[in-house]
Amino acid sequence: MIFQILDANYVYDPDGFPIVQLFGTTPSGRPVTVQASGFRPYFYARIDERRIDSAIDGIREMGLSAEAVDRFRPVGYQRRPSKMLKVVAKDPKSVRDFRESVLSVPGVLEVYETDVLFKNRFLIDLDLGGMRWAEVEAGNGGSDLETAPAGSATIGPVPYTSLRPAGAGPAVAGGAEREKVPGAEARGGAKAIPNAPLRTLAFDIECLPLHGAMPSPETSPVIMVSLAFDPPYKGREDLVLVGRDLDCPRGDVLCCGGERAMLARFVEILKDYDPDVLAGYNSAEFDFPYLEERARRLNVEVRVGRDGGPWRVRKIVNQTRVEITGRIVVDLLPLVRSSFSLKRYTLRNASLELLGVEKHDVDPKEMEALWTSSGDDFARLVSYSRRDSYLALHLLTDLQLLDKYIALAQTSGSLLQDVIDGGQTGMVENFLFRKFQERGRVIPPKPDADLSSARAAQSSELKGGEVLEPKKGLVEDVLILDYRSLYPSIMMAHNLCYSTVVTDERPPSGGVVKPPSGGEFVLPGEAPGIVPGVLSDLLAQRTDIKRRMKSASEEERSILDAQQYALKILLNSFYGYSGYARARLYSLPLANAVTSFGRTNILNTKRMVEEIGSVYVRDGKALLPEEMASASGDSFPAVGEFKRFDLSVVYGDTDSVFIRLKPFGGSGVKPTLEEAELVGGKIAETVTSRLPPPMELVFEAFARRGLFLVKKRYALWVFEKVGGEWRDKIKVRGMETVRRDWCELTSKTLNRSLELVLMEGRVEEAVDLAKSVIDRLQRLDLRKDPEILEDLVLTRRYTKSTASYKNKQPHVQLAEKMRARGGPVPSVGDRVPFVIVRGRGLFVDRAEDPSYALENGLLIDTDYYINKQILPPLLRLLAPFGVSKEQLVCCPEQQRLFDLAPPGAAVAKGRAPSGPPAEGQEQKQKSLFDF
DNA sequence: CAACACGCCTAA
DNA sequence: TGAGTTAGGCGTGTTG
């Protein structure tokens, strides 16, 4: 029988030995639990070779078994393995304690792999992994499972040796000996098995706020639970559970009489529907903790796990984690946060931006009245509640948010829940555990707090990428080239790895690579690195998947796309991991070697391009100067038979170069798109041929015009070939249009101006646009023009508790104001929207809640918006064309005076003259004389 | 007024 | 946020 692994844990047999439970799904989507016995927890101890016997005796006296093995230490090139003991325990929970006692045994030098969760140890050692397929030889009940009556089935306990990997997803990692034949077919011809269908339940709760305040689980009941199902549950796509008695006219509204009965019903439906995935929006921070507390108070059992256990809500520092054995718990809020750059992450805004669906809303103050009402009013409350679980479900399914996490789980071997909740570290480590094991290398435990902070202090010595100074201003005809997976390809090209870095042993031949950062790495002939090998596997798989995507159906393509994305993420994670202070495998020499090669490479690339100097295009072919010369012999072709473009690098960042093509001579003709592509391809090919494989420079796009402001800030009118056709668009990097701490009015105005300047070359129209926007602001009257408020909203992330801020920040000041008013307060991690209102004092003190400002008739500080939001970005764009501030702010005399006055001047007029003017004002006053 | 620290967000 | 990395611009407010 085969099944796809969803989750894992362990229980104990009557003798106190662990039994691993794998929770999975059969190909048809039926849940199954497989129990495996006989697998034991273990770890490694490196020992002084002269004291092996006494050390073994000492360890055996603790009731552990110990066996001498040869293993390589984690970091550093070693010619021979070290003597180690594999120490086997009975109870996984005892390993932590035995680690200390074993360390105190004379002769024991160091311990390894002492903190590997037992479920992970099991999966790693059996070459199984999250969302991968496994096969179990099940004597009874296994083969006829698919035809057995409904409900889940349990198999076993079977000996753990009767479990093995089944099939091979294209992204499932292969072993070391398959490097010769890259791609999916390489895995012993194993066929990829499509993912089993997942049953998904999304839910949302409504609580009764007291007089419009935030509900608290100590006092406010849960009044509704809405549920959305995919696939439908008993023919229904959604249900709303109601915690009061009412004649419920509709079948999809279940009136439960009271809160307790409603919660019990929720638990019943959960068990009955038996979802693989349980989702909500902000459910980890709100719904689950709330339900947990209400259930505790009302004495409702929440045993919804596939092992019969309860859900577990664990508060971690600033975060809550929810676990249900055998199921995947998904809080969509952090997923949406990490996948999309939005100004706000409320369910309302996320649904609008990502699904294009409006959310129904009920004013918290109205809730109580609606709750006790009936008829249409009550129906409104029900439909509001229903909508929220619907939106959560559709964010998950329509955006296929889970697909890439599934692919990441399959590729890395981590359980899906760990991929969703954790970061790159867990995946990289899970992956490395497997690869190091194949090569007989052990992995250290996680560094303790002291070691981590020592490393963190040290890691300021890690230098990053090189950014070239841009040639500022407008440039025409720019080629964009970049290196494909630069850091991974550097690691492969130079055999950079934990296992190749020279620490204390040197290779017999003495052959080493010396990176610009110093240090030495042995050549692949001596010892091919583990990480370079892994990267090479992953790269080959990605190339293969991208090839297969071209001929795949729509449905297949989205799965393949998730897989190639997962491979890309993983490929790029190894470098970051090596420089991460809390990594098990931290190596500053390794991380520094990678970036130092990167820096010299981009500088080299610039030099190479400029040494090439120019490229010719003749008869539909691009030629280097020497090719042109040799092709034409003594008689250089006549002008008109070829085009020549002179090359200069105008910008570059880490792995990219921007090359200007200057048509040769006064009568030089601009390149066509096709010619630009030819030239770009020629340069890429030429540079690549001079670099060690698999380093590869590729032609990415061509820009007819570009505007480079400063490092990391530029805009281009790019042309890209999509399926044989040229598509053009404006590509903006780093400028205010892509920054969320600027208002929409700025983004819109700047965006349109960029289009006018870059696509149409119409600077005057951009000037007119800016003038009209400024004029509109000067005449601003919120009562007549309330829609503009939305465009004036700035947002900033409230990153830490107020007390930890050393300086005042507008959004933090606002959060405090809101707290004092007793309304809803932004919490740490939220993006806080605000507008700047007119008044006395510092900018940071004049941030206001947009709706509060509107309701209370506060005046917008138009001077701030003109002088700080519109003018600076627009002038940065237009100044290179000789546009000055005065040209943008030209208006009736009266308003001009007003404009040039400092922010708050209107108030200053009415202020007591005795007060000393603020510093900023004094400066502005002085600058008035300049005009 | 220049130099600086802080905070935020983005590029890669 | 129980954590992939560094480079870099810019606004705000303070300091010398």
TrEMBL record:
Residues 417-880 form the DNA-directed DNA polymerase family B multifunctional domain. Transmembrane segments: none annotated. Residues 921-931 have a biased composition (Basic and acidic residues). It is an enzyme of class 2 (transferase). PROSITE patterns: DNA_POLYMERASE_B. Gene3D superfamilies: DNA polymerase family B, C-terminal domain, DNA Polymerase, chain B, domain 1, Helix hairpin bin, Palm domain of DNA polymerase, Ribonuclease H-like superfamily/Ribonuclease H. Keywords: DNA replication, DNA-binding, DNA-directed DNA polymerase, Nucleotidyltransferase, Transferase. It catalyses: DNA(n) + a 2'-deoxyribonucleoside 5'-triphosphate = DNA(n+1) + diphosphate. Its EC number is 2.7.7.7. Residues 196-348 form the DNA-directed DNA polymerase family B exonuclease domain. It comes from the Archaea. GO terms for molecular function: DNA binding; DNA-directed DNA polymerase activity; nucleotide binding. InterPro entries: DNA-dir_DNA_pol_B, DNA-dir_DNA_pol_B_CS, DNA-dir_DNA_pol_B_exonuc, DNA-dir_DNA_pol_B_multi_dom, DNA/RNA_pol_sf, DNA_pol_B_thumb, DNA_pol_palm_dom_sf, DNA_pol_type-B. The keyword Transferase applies. This is DNA polymerase.
